[in-house]
# Entry
Amino acid sequence: MSGILSIRITPGKKEVMREVNVDWASFVRRTMEGKAREEKRKNMMKLMDESRRKTQGVKFDPAEVVRSLRDVR
# Structure
């Protein structure tokens, strides 16, 4: 589903936009999509940082875990 986004610009800017050969709808769409991806990445990085802080100081030895799992067999 798509929606409509409208913005106000000054008449002078509108005239300048008309003078240049740019597909403004595509430009704005791509820019917004890029910004949304960037913000999503930032949010994921915050979650990862919070997870790291919660596990700070926890010692984990993967070799020890593998050995213990093999011993259980």
User: Anything to note?
Assistant: Residues 11-72 form one domain. The chain has a mean pLDDT of 93.
